[in-house]
Structure formats: structure tokens, C-alpha cells
Specification:
single chain, alpha/beta, six-stranded mixed beta sheet, five-stranded parallel beta sheet, 23 helices, about 10% strand, binds 6-O-phosphono-beta-D-fructofuranose
């Protein structure tokens, strides 16, 4: 099937998306789908019935359904770490948790969710107090990567659902300027820190957590009262206890929940603090609705499968190196950044499950930002650049805002972009337009080539009625499963991340070299940069 798809792709570079609508009168209906509160229109992709059939035949040949069942059934599909991949069970009903996890683990999950709800309730009721007896007004979540993006992006997306009394803040990057900016705005007496780290050894998180600890002490919190201001979420409970967190303030994680898929675990605690446990449970219910669709819909009517296969078609067969995710929604403005970790840390690999080199191109370069800002940033390149850049538009059809005219303009711009990417503007059209404006022949000859837009750029559009907790959960699950489908079809392990280890090792080596120790292991370039750093610091 791979050769068939390569052959089809070579033909599809001459295929006209725009003309296909006349050849396929039902194209929009045929290439649209509703699932779990989301509407997907992929009719503006560079595809044909033969392409879609071949992609699905290939998926069947690769036993994609069997691979899906293996994941949901708890097989250790994360083969390099010997782990199952069961983050989706955390958002499933308790009977499913019981069936998949077994009694003891299901109990632990249930107890943790119960404990999480209790702590959120106590914080919202003002029952948890700091060293001077005042109730907490602020929670600062210290974590990075998957211990940060999910809760932060969802809290941002669901701002209309946030609790006004309890403010939630996020501290991820290891830059003192960012740390001080956050802490300067907070009161140590009424701030609770939640350290979120699956391993509880992440350099940035521990440095930031210790900085917050010192800030609490400098703010009047004595050592004896420090634990009142601490909570942790981790799979390494002993490390959290060593850090000073009381065991009844530690919410556990499990190794079968990958970091970038951990929002559904207690990593979601700061989000639950922000939007309330009921809305957090709605988010999980929306994600489960997408899980149910993913597990049960036939491949041809399966939203994550369709998006996964389209992404492979564009990346591995049409050879488009990147993917733009363009939320026309201020609420979803950081969704592209969240997706960069989920997509590129999962499938940014070149070795298959058994160590073999993968010959197909794998994960695309994912980027994006909210529209219409994107139109004043990089859309020029989408319309007249040398590379085709597939676009995934995400736009709510109604807004929480009272400014309805703004929303109309926002949605009109979103639809206009996919139309323009597909239709483009030919030289003949440009010349006709310029002539109609009375531009001279000579000027037309000079200017026209600069105004041509080749078009025929693929895009798809996801719409939802409104941004709600349920829809956000469904959207995140859609992309999680899309990325699973792609990893399964590429034959790689989407759930480890060995590529991040070397940078971590080298940063430790460089840190010791900064303290004047041996730097002979470093390259001349790094040694030179190091020397400049050390000299400037003197
Ligand atoms: O980015 C590498 C990574 O290991 C991610 O997979 C993870 O989400 C992040 O670092 C933080 O890890 P931890 O939760 O263990 O601090």
C-alpha cells in the first residue's frame, strides 16, 4: 500500500482541490464528520476517494484497530520503557477503570480523584490556611512540559468557567526573571505551591520549587509551617516527601500515564482549582466521549483516524514538512504550543518499535498561533511561499464575548483563509483585476507576477458550537488519538522521549564546568561560549 500511496501522491501534485468539488458534488458531505461535539470538514484537503480508500486499506493492513485495542486494553505498547499507555482510562467511567486496571489500581485512581476533589473543595471554601492562618487566595503550580502545558492551556481556554476567589498561576521555565515576575505579584502568606513532576527530579522544576520555598520563608513562613504551603503531584512520592510535602498532600501518578498525556491525572489539579471539580469532570467526560467514538466508529467515519491519516498523507506522501494549527479563538491561543509537545515529542522520531530506521517521513514541524494574528505574521508564506503548509483551522461558531461583531469578523477571516489557500489567484485573474482598476499594461506586466497566489494548499476546519469544558476535553482527546494513529502507522513508539536525555546530561556537565571544573569534554564552541559567560559574570 505504501507504494500505491507514493504513486497517488505523485499524481496529486497535479490534482486541483478547487476543481474536485465539481467532480464530487457531495464532496463537502462526504468529507465532513461530527463527533463528540466537534465538526470536522476536510473537503479542502488534497484528497480523492482513491486516496482515502488507499489510506484506509493501509490502516487495515497495519491492523490499526488491533493497535488501538492493544492500547485501550493495557498492553505495554510503550515497549522501550515496558509500560502500558492508559491515560484515557483516567477519564473513563469507574466500571471501565475497574475492568482495565483491576481492583487495586482502580481503587487507587478513585481514591486519588476523590482526594483531589476534597482538596479543591477545601481550597475553594477557604478551609486550607497558610502560616498566619489566612486562607489561600493563590495556587502556584510549578512544573514543566506535560506537567504544565495541559492544565495551563485548558485553564486559559476555559477562563469563563474560572473561580474568581482562587487564582491559579503557572511556573515552568527556568528563568529567574519569569520566576520573580510571578512571585512579585503574590503574597507568601496566602499562596499554596503545587509541585507537579512525574519523576520529581526535573532540574527546572526543582530549582523553581526551591526558589518558591525560599520565597515563602523570606515572606515570614517558618520551617515548621512550610508544609502548610506545599502540595505535590508525582509518581515518586518518596522524593516529594524528602522535599517537605506531607504525605496527605501528595497526589500520586502512575507510570502508565505519560507526562504529555497526564492532564487527566492529578496533574490536572491546578486546572480543577481554576475551573472547579465539576467543570474538570466535564472536561474528562468530553474526552471520554471522543475516546468512545475513537474505539467504536469505523475507520472511514472515525475523526482521529481520518485526521491521523490525512496528516500522514500530507507529511509522508505529499512531503509537506510542517503543519500549522490555527485556532481562531483567543481562548485556544496556546493550543498550538501544547500540541508541539504532544505531537513532536511523541512522533519526532526516526527509529521504529524494533530499532529499525523508519523510511517514511514522521512527525511534521507543528507551529501556529491564534488567528487573525497569524494573518499578520506568517500567512504570507502559506499563500506565496515555496512550500505547501497544511493548515488545521479551529474555530468556535459562537463566542462567550458580548462583542458579536468581533466574532463575525474573526470567523469570516478564518473561513476566508481556507478559501484563499485553496483557490489562490491566477496570473490571468490578477491581470484582469489590475486592468479593471485602470492599471497600465506596463505596470500590470511588472506587478502581476507578484500578486499571483498558486492556491491548492490543503486545509481542514474543526468547528464547535462554543468553547466549553466538554468540547475542550474532546478536542484534546481528538489530537491525542490522531497522534497515536500516526505513531501506530509509522510503526514507532509515541510514548517514550529518549531524545530529551542528552540535553539534560550536557546541561549538568556545563553547570559543573561553570563552577570551574573540568570542561575538556565540551566542544571548542561550547568552551568558548562558556568562557565568555564566566568572564562576563566576573
Ligand atoms: O520534556 C521531557 C519531559 O520528560 C516530558 O515528557 C515531561 O512532561 C516533562 O519533561 C516534565 O517531566 P516531569 O513531570 O517528570 O517533571
Amino acid at each position: 500500500m505504501i507504494n500505491v500511496l507514493h504513486q497517488l501522491a505523485s499524481e496529486h501534485h497535479r490534482f486541483s482541490i478547487k476543481d474536485s468539488f465539481s467532480m464530487q458534488p457531495n464532496r463537502v458531505t462526504d468529507y465532513s464528520l461530527v463527533a463528540a461535539g466537534l465538526f470536522l470538514d476536510y473537503s479542502q484537503q488534497n484528497i480523492s476517494p482513491q486516496v482515502m480508500k488507499s489510506l484506509n486499506d493501509w490502516a487495515r493492513q497495519c491492523d490499526l484497530t488491533g493497535k488501538m485495542q492493544a492500547m485501550f486494553g493495557g498492553e505495554k505498547i510503550n515497549n522501550t520503557e515496558g509500560r502500558a499507555v492508559l491515560h484515557s482510562v483516567l477519564r473513563a467511567p469507574s466500571d471501565v477503570q475497574q475492568a482495565v486496571l483491576g481492583g487495586e489500581l482502580a481503587r487507587q485512581v478513585g481514591d486519588t480523584q476523590q482526594r483531589m476533589a476534597e482538596l479543591v473543595g477545601q481550597l475553594h471554601n477557604g478551609d486550607l490556611v497558610g502560616f498566619d492562618g489566612r486562607a489561600f487566595t493563590d495556587v502556584i503550580a510549578v512544573g514543566i512540559g506535560g506537567s504544565y502545558y495541559g492544565p495551563k492551556v485548558c485553564a486559559q481556554a476555559l477562563k469563563p468557567y474560572t473561580n474568581s476567589q482562587l487564582k491559579v498561576h503557572y511556573l515552568a521555565n527556568v528563568d529567574g526573571e519569569g520566576v520573580e515576575e510571578k512571585l512579585d505579584a503574590l503574597n507568601p502568606a496566602t499562596t499554596l505551591m503545587v509541585v507537579i513532576s512525574k519523576t520529581f527530579v526535573t532540574q527546572e522544576t526543582l530549582l523553581n520549587a526551591n526558589a518558591v520555598k525560599s520565597w515563602l520563608v523570606e515572606g515570614g513562613c517558618n520551617e515548621a509551617s512550610l508544609s502548610k504551603h506545599l502540595m505535590a503531584v508525582s509518581s515518586h512520592v518518596e522524593n516529594a516527601i524528602k522535599f517537605g510535602v506531607n504525605s496527605d498532600r501528595i497526589l500520586p501518578m502512575w507510570d502508565w500515564v505519560g507526562g504529555r498525556f497526564s492532564l487527566w491525572s492529578a496533574v490536572g489539579f491546578p486546572l480543577a482549582c481554576a475551573i472547579g471539580i465539576d467543570n474538570y469532570n466535564e472536561l474528562k467526560a468530553g474526552a471520554y466521549e471522543m475516546d468512545h467514538h475513537f474505539m467504536n466508529a469505523p475507520l472511514e467515519q472515525n475523526m482521529p483516524v481520518i485526521m491521523g491519516l490525512l496528516g500522514i498523507w500530507n507529511r509522508s506522501f505529499m512531503n509537506y514538512p510542517s503543519l500549522a494549527v490555527l485556532p481562531y479563538s483567543h481562548a485556544l491561543r496556546d493550543f498550538p504550543g501544547y500540541l508541539q509537545q504532544v505531537d513532536m515529542e511523541s512522533n519526532g522520531k526516526s527509529v521504529g518499535l524494533n530499532g529499525e530506521t523508519i523510511t517514511l517521513a514522521t512527525a511534521p514541524i507543528v507551529f501556529g498561533q491564534e488567528g487573525t494574528n497569524s494573518q499578520h505574521a506568517f500567512m504570507q508564506m502559506m499563500h506565496q511561499g515555496q512550500d505547501k503548509i497544511p493548515c488545521e483551522f479551529i474555530v468556535p461558531l459562537t463566542t462567550h464575548s458580548t462583542l458579536k461583531e468581533h466574532h463575525k469578523v474573526l470567523v469570516a477571516n478564518c473561513f476566508a483563509q481556507s478559501e484563499a489557500l485553496m483557490n489562490g489567484k491566477s496570473l490571468a485573474q490578477v491581470k484582469t483585476e489590475l486592468a479593471a482598476k485602470g492599471v497600465s499594461e506596463q505596470e500590470i506586466e511588472q506587478l502581476a507576477p507578484h500578486k499571483v497566489m498558486p492556491g491548492n494548499s490543503p486545509s481542514l476546519t474543526i468547528t464547535m458550537d462554543k468553547i466549553t469544558p466538554k468540547v475542550v476535553g474532546s478536542l484534546l482527546a481528538l489530537y491525542e488519538h490522531k497522534i497515536f494513529v500516526q505513531g501506530a502507522m509509522w510503526g514507532l513508539n509515541s510514548f517514550d522521549q529518549w531524545g530529551v536525555e542528552l540535553g539534560k546530561e550536557l546541561s549538568s556537565a556545563i553547570l559543573t564546568a561553570m563552577d570551574g571544573e573540568d570542561d575538556t569534554k565540551l566542544s571548542p564552541a561550547t568552551s568558548s561560549q562558556l568562557a565568555r559567560f564566566c568572564n562576563l559574570g566576573k
